[in-house]
Amino acid sequence: MFKPYFIFIFCCVFCFQSFSQGNFILRKGNKDRINFKLIHNLIVIPVEINGAKLSFLLDTGISKSIIFNFLNLREDLQINQAESIYLRGLGEGKAVEALKSRNNVFRIGKAININQDIYAIFDPSLNFAPRLGVPIHGIIGYDLLKDFVVEVNYSNKYIKLHDPDTYKPKKCKKCKSLPIEFHNNKPYIIGSISINGNSKQVKLLIDSGGSDALWLFDDEDITIPDKFFEDFLGRGLSGSVYGKRSKLDKFSIAGFELKKVNVAFPDSMSVSYAKKIKDRNGSLGGEILKRFNIILDYPNSKITLKRNRFFSNPFYYNLSGITLEHNGVRMVKEIDRGSGITRFNSNSESAGSVTVFVTNSYRYLLASAFTIVELREDSPAKNAGLKLEDVILAVNNKDAHLYSLQDIIQMFYGEDGNRISLLIDRKGVQLRFNFRLEKLL
Hints:
The chain has three domains: 21-162, Acid Proteases (Cathepsin D, subunit A, domain 1); 176-307, Acid Proteases (Cathepsin D, subunit A, domain 1, Beta Barrel); 322-436, Roll (Pdz3 Domain), CATH 2.30.42.10. It has six helices and 31 strands. The chain has helices at residues 70-73, 129-132, 142-145, 286-289, 380-384, 405-411, and strands at residues 12-13, 25-26, 31-35, 37-39, 42-49, 52-58, 66-67, 82-89, 96-108, 111-121, 138-140, 149-153, 158-162, 176-179, 181-183, 186-195, 198-206, 214-216, 229-236, 239-253, 256-266, 282-284, 292-297, 302-307, 322-335, 356-358, 362-375, 391-395, 398-399, 419-426, 429-436. Strands 15, 16, 17, 18, 19, 20, 21 and 22 form an eight-stranded mixed beta sheet that branches. The protein is globular.
């Protein structure tokens, strides 16, 4: 079964001087295993900060740790020694205000750092949880990865932290290793693309915080294929990112070869800061990374890859044109088939809270509201009459609250010709729309 590939960008460019901070160490033993959730190709791990238990994305594309939606967390989370600063990231908007904080205590599994720096962002619009459908409080990358040899097992959804002084790699005939080059504490590797009948080596940021397969910067050496479509690519710290999507004939890395690979070409203004890295051609994201079990050895500037059960999966696109977001809650009326007061539980963790009230023959519950926040031009959904801010009530005659956000998005990545029926709420009026998924390229 293929998985939905939602688009998120957490790669940031920081314009300030660095300062010293502590290191992570393992409190007991020389290794630790931490289970993670894989959401839209993104790794979500449990993190404890100053005693508050949170969920963070593990993002190789960032050099500093960031907390989002800080104003809603401040009652539970104490931020130490803070001062105001501005951060700049992907997107065409302005820099965002944040607090730079020192001497914070981070715990990730058995790993602890008693002097960790963090950047807390005020802007509530930079809360990325609604588009993932689960709580996401922040991102961490280099700060953790620099202190360990880290196994990332996408197949079984866990990471292992190894003390680099005692780590001994296992013999693996099917594994391939290649060097990592660092710029501003961000990792880059060399791959090869086949595009427009030509082959070219490319220097790519390893970006586990981006759920796309591959981003390339359009320039004189890399030109966009003739067949493409315009689309929303994701959200960065400085705003939304748009661009073109297409297919590569082939992508190769460390001797592994993938064909008919999804590729995106972001608008040049949105990635102007990212393109300043010398010789950088783009980013390698989660949709390709998840096809390998990976060992990240930052202390020795090396990455090791082994293909896993996802390797041969086809690359799919969202054929509907809809980008959904968890946007608050809505009241749902259901027939009460039981008795007493019970708590409603969906089949997946939600970014919103849910409460159930029971009356004589019906029960009323607060369920997640799934709202259309982006619509691709000339897409099946747009042509059928759907609009921004429509709230989905049912999908293919099944109530939307019985699905997770991922479940619904997955339907949009179906086969060409699949029929989608949506019941929506538009400013208090219920409407039904039908369309078929259409092949894009």
